Amino acid sequence: MPVTAAGEVERTFEVAGAEVLDGADVARVLGHHVPAEPVERLQEAVYFDTADLALHGDRVTLRRRTGGPDDGWHVKLPAAGDRREELHAPLTPAGSAPPPDVTALVRAAARGRPLGPVAELMTRRRAWEATDAAGQRVAELVVDQVTARTGAGGEAMQAWQEIEVEVGPAAPEGYLDVVEERLAARGIRRSPSASKVGRVLGERPAPRLPDEDTAAGVVLRYLAEHGRTLRGWDPLVRLDREDAVHQMRVSARRLRSALQGFGRVLDRERTRALTDELRWLAGELAPARDTEVMLARLQDMLAALPPTLVVGPVAAEVAQAFARRGAAARGRVLAALDSKRYVAVLRALDALLADPPLTARAPRVAREVLPREVDRAHRKVVVAMAAADGVPRGPERDAALHETRKKAKRLRYATEVAEPALGDPARRLRRRMKDVQELLGVHQDSVVTRATLLELAGGGPGPREVTHDFTLGMLHAAEVERAHEVEEMLPAVWATVPAPGQ
Q1: CA distances from 397 to 21, 104, 405, 448 (A)
Q2: Of the candidates 66, 170, 154, which has an alpha carbon nearest to the alpha carbon of residue 118?
Q3: Which region among 148-152, 297-301, 329-333, 448-452 has the lowest average model confidence (pLDDT)?
Q4: Mean pLDDT of 107-129
Q5: Which of 201, 228, 249 is the last residue of a domain?
């Protein structure tokens, strides 16, 4: 079943009492021409969620709606400011379960639990569309009379009136602010509810976390934030959005690093299984991300070569080889996200927040506990950097620098966790460590690129995928030079890293 996407930028406003707008009122509010009479619709929507409203807790909406131009199944992802992405799938018969392509998009939010109806809304809508002098759509203003039913038999009822304003392609910057001011002048204020169903279902209680000034409070809030982020990237990975795999992998790594780095706040033995599973998840995402990065790198390098050094259709062969690799890597990602093992990871994160394995240090003040954990991570980087510096150039040094990079990343994430409690010193250390990590990342990219070039030329375990060895050799030599340049730059960048607390 095809799923299509559409972004919407809108705000919702409460209408107290029996406020009635006509075409002239709407024209004054929107500041553009609108028809005298609205388009009227009767829309019916059934909203689906888990028994414990997990989708609602993640600000994700799933509904089956009829009565408008976009009849069908809708998934709304969490809003970013006034913008929210809505995914559409074709309508299925009334009473049917959400189709598989739709349930896949909310699988992470649901944590794999069954979905069922939780609310039914009937909306009598009056809609006006404003256009500019060129006939381009500026905005649509709708006045909705909403009746909502909840409960197993739909016995609980609510009714209210609201206004939604959605901007179109011809809306100028800041337009919604102007419209809001004009509505406020009529006593119409922004709604505190993010959605109609949100108003019906209310707030889903979040797990009770320790006080935010304690070590446990700081670490657990970080884990909660990046658990939400991990789940938020899931539907975008399924939709094959640019950079989504990378960002989801980063979220998994952040979670794992926090559990590893603060094992004296959250009992390390009791979180070890979860960190192993987060490593597995990041590993399943890695080939897809690495394929994206490697293809872009090789294409840039080929484009930078003088045409006389590009022998034969090497660019086309590289593209074909990576198309095959990319398809295999994407299949691996989707298989992981559809697995029971992945759902178990998400549930384990929930369980950790609901009943955290706190140590004796966990309730203590964060400013007393967390600096020691950052210091420990910093010392590991110092030791690794010194060890790598003593290794001659070659595969062993490449491996040593890669280990240093991993420890630098852990230190960066440790300071990121502690930053709310430690402030500017942690922020400075994190920023400098990001510079070191990124430089070491360039070095590791060079190592991986060289290995990939050898594989493409048939120097690895697989078949030869590119036949033009001269050009591949030129790229290999360039990557060797790039690695040497990084190694020469590294001491100066490392020297800028402050000691923890400075």
Answers
A1: 73, 44, 12, 14
A2: 154
A3: 148-152
A4: 95
A5: 201
Of 273, 268, 491, 492, whose CA–CA distance to 376 is shortest?
268
Residue 168 has pLDDT above 90, yes or no: yes
CA-closest candidate to residue 25, choices 255, 188, 263, 137: 188
Domains of the chain: total: 2
Residue-wise pLDDT for 344-362, tens only, equals 999 999 999 999 999 999 9
Q: Are 280 and 341 in contact (CB under 8 A)?
A: yes
Cα–Cα distance measured from residue 56 to residue 199, given in angstroms and rounded to the nearest whole number: 11
| CA–CA separation, 432 and 500 (whole Å) | 11
What pTM was computed for the model? 0.91
CATH number at residue 383: 1.40.20.10
Residues 214-243 have pLDDT tens digits of 999 999 999 999 999 999 999 999 999 999
Q: Are residues 52 and 146 in the same domain?
A: yes
In a domain, 311, yes or no: yes
Report the DSSP beta bridge partners of residue 7: 85
Is the domain of 20 the same as that of 61?
A: yes
Query: How many other CB atoms are there within 10 angstroms of residue 362's CB atom?
Result: 22
